[in-house]
Amino acid sequence: MSAVPSSSPEDNLEMGLKPNRAQVIHQLLQVFFVGLTIGMLRTVVPALAETEFGVAEGSFLMLTSFVVAFGFVKGALNFVAGRLSERIGRKKVLVLGWLAALPIPFLVLWAPNWNWIVVATVLLGVNQGLAWSMTQTAKMDLTRADERGLTMGLNEFSGYVGVAVAGIVTGYFAGWFGPRLGLMIFGISVILVALLLSILAVRETLDWAKAESARHASGQATGPRARLPEQISDNPTTWAVFTLVSWRDKRLFALSQAGLVEKFVDALVWVFYPVFLFEQGVSLATIGWIVGVYGFVWGGSQFLTGKWSDHIGRQKLIVWGMWLCGAGVGMTVLGEGVWWWSLSAAVSGFGMAMLYPTLSAAVADISHPNWRGSAIGIYRFWRDLGYGIGALGLGLAAHWAGAVTAGFWFVFVAMMVSGAVVWVFGEETHPRLNPATE
């Protein structure tokens, strides 16, 4: 009697959104909670930096310090999370991210000065670097190549709707309970629920990545093949992946620098939008709604733009998204009134929706499944370093000019130049639209 061929658990794993619907929903809930966690520090804290936390008026560099800390910490943890997840699994890294977030609400509640806010933001960077990275990587594990744009759109839609919701809700909580207690009640509730769900409901997805890698190795992968980089092995060192994504592959370089620069916009919205609007006499609740317009348009539109990139490709959406988002930033200081600022925020938000999920999908398109987690982590390292570099640039521009409006023009110019770099050095990465020739 002939022997029965041996099989591994990975042989029975099916790729795609539909067969993995339950886990995709759990991952979307996780990224929604991650968005709520970052969103709770985006409206109340910057607007009340002077009156509640002792930041002197006009101290632009001090004001941006907490976002600088967040950017550098989150960037580093993105890099660590990607590589670590290929060794211990995606779920364990996700749980570690939520454990790191537990002290944040209490640090805000008891903060005697701005330094405590910086420490809280460092822990927020750890949470974001570990948890948001894993929601993205896990969904890339579960879905097919022709669904990556939609998958990234769903992921970022869920996360940034969470950011927008938290910005609005915490504005009201600050009015009802006071800024510190309101943030503590909201924050600890979100973090505890997310931690519990990550332990009980989320499944490890590393086996799906191993199954995809096995199909690549055996020649059983179906459909058009992506134009993967040739100057790297299938099982590279950490340094080899880092240099490839950072500068050795011009396509990945173009994507990484675009990711870095687009975070200048988010740093601006986080730090200077609330300050600029507060200086114009806008209430905290209204600031929450204006910033929320940016978040809702960004988050909501990604559901459409992510799927759009699966049809027309990544390159066009990235370039035009960079330019449209930058134009919205410039519009903000060219007019006045709640409706004008809301329109400007919506333009920036839609431009961001065009480029944001598309950049991550493009990186995933041309990354081998063996090192895709690392590649995404390195791209996210450069992208979220943009928080720190952008916040420094904002602070210096405002310091030299003596006005927060200088920060808006700094971001406008950076976005226009970065979009041009993608236009010159990038290429279409969707395997159906620009497949490998061999």
Task: Describe the 3D structure.
The protein has 438 residues and is mainly α. The chain contains 17 helices and no strands. It has helices at residues 21-39, 44-47, 49-53, 60-88, 90-101, 104-110, 114-142, 148-177, 179-200, 206-218, 238-248, 250-279, 284-312, 315-332, 338-365, 372-401, 405-425. α7 runs antiparallel to α8. The model is unreliable at 1-9 (pLDDT under 50).
**How many strands in all?**
0
Helicity range: over 70%
In whole angstroms, the N-to-C terminal distance is 41 Å
Structural class: mainly alpha
Order of helices and strands: HHHHHHHHHHHHHHHHH
Oligomer: single chain
Largest sheet: none
Instruction: Assess the beta-strand content as a share of residues.
Output: under 5%
Uncertain stretches of 5 or more adjacent residues: 1-9
Q: What is the mean pLDDT?
A: 86
Q: Label the overall shape.
A: globular
Radius of gyration: 21 Å
Number of helices: 17
Compose a concise summary of this entry.
The chain is mainly alpha-helical. It has 17 helices and no strands. Helices cover 77% and strands 0% of the residues.
Any descriptors?
438 residues, mainly alpha, globular, disordered N terminus
List the helices and strands and how they pair.
Elements lengths: L20 H19 L4 H4 L1 H5 L6 H29 L1 H12 L2 H7 L3 H29 L5 H30 L1 H22 L5 H13 L19 H11 L1 H30 L4 H29 L2 H18 L5 H28 L6 H30 L3 H21 L13
Helix pairs in contact: 1-7, 1-8, 1-9, 4-5, 4-7, 4-16, 5-7, 5-9, 6-7, 6-9, 7-8, 7-10, 8-9, 8-13, 8-15, 11-12, 11-16, 12-13, 12-15, 12-16, 12-17, 13-15, 14-15, 14-17, 16-17
